[in-house]
Amino acid sequence: MKLRSTLTALALVVAPGVAVVGTAGDAFAVSKIGHATATSMFRQSGITWSSSGGCSDRNNSTCTSFEQLNLATAQGAQTLKGSSGCALNITGGTETGHASGTYSHWNGYKLDYGKNTCVTGYIKNTFGYIGLRGDGAPQYRSGAGNIYADEGNHWDVLYYNCGGC
């Protein structure tokens, strides 16, 4: 156990841009990125974003922020855009105001996408239906294991990984 603790500490020193998530028994590394890096990635892929407040403050629920977004989540958005060929508009990121939990918006695992016919058709025709979420939202699982929940006026997407990037 002492060796594991030493290796974990060494990994944190060697990779300062990486956060460790989970308990000591199931910890894994998650690379975090800032808002500017995420918007640059999205812009390069033709992904748009919007907020009801026209802002990017992580602590304001009417903003759309990408501060502390997981790199794999941003890459997952790029993969969805590239695979589907659909217009993709992000309406929710890491800002406050979403449900809490380990795999939450705040912790960088989720993005919300505005619905359009192309995105909805792609998700429903490409991913497997896995049943209703506790709140009644229909869910679909990609081959990579990511979960797409239809919340009525938008898609709430949980990225466990980058989705094949």
Q: How does this structure look, described?
A:
With 165 residues, the chain is an alpha+beta fold. It is built from four helices and ten strands, in the order αββαββαββαββββ. Strands 3-5-6-10-9-8-7 form a seven-stranded mixed beta sheet, with helices on one face. The protein has a three-stranded antiparallel beta sheet with strand order 1-2-4. The chain is globular. The N and C termini lie far apart (34 Å). Residues 1-27 have low confidence and may be disordered.
Which key features would you list for this structure?
single chain; alpha+beta; seven-stranded mixed beta sheet; three-stranded antiparallel beta sheet
Largest sheet strand order = 3-5-6-10-9-8-7
Query: CA-to-CA gap between the ends?
Result: 34 Å
Low-confidence stretches: 1-27
Overall pLDDT: 86
Element-level helix/strand string: HEEHEEHEEHEEEE
By helix and strand content, what is the structural category?
alpha+beta
* Topology, number of strands: 10
Radius of gyration: 16 Å
Assess the beta-strand content as a share of residues: 15-25%
Q: Helix coverage percent of residues?
A: 25-40%
| Most strands sheet | 7 strands, mixed
Q: Secondary structure elements and their pairing?
A:
Blueprint: H1 2-14, E1 18-21, E2 28-33, H2 35-45, E3 48-49, E4 69-70, H3 71-84, E5 89-92, E6 110-114, H4 117-126, E7 128-132, E8 138-141, E9 147-150, E10 154-158
Parallel strand pairs: 3-5
Antiparallel strand pairs: 1-2, 2-4, 5-6, 6-10, 7-8, 8-9, 9-10
Helix pairs in contact: 2-3
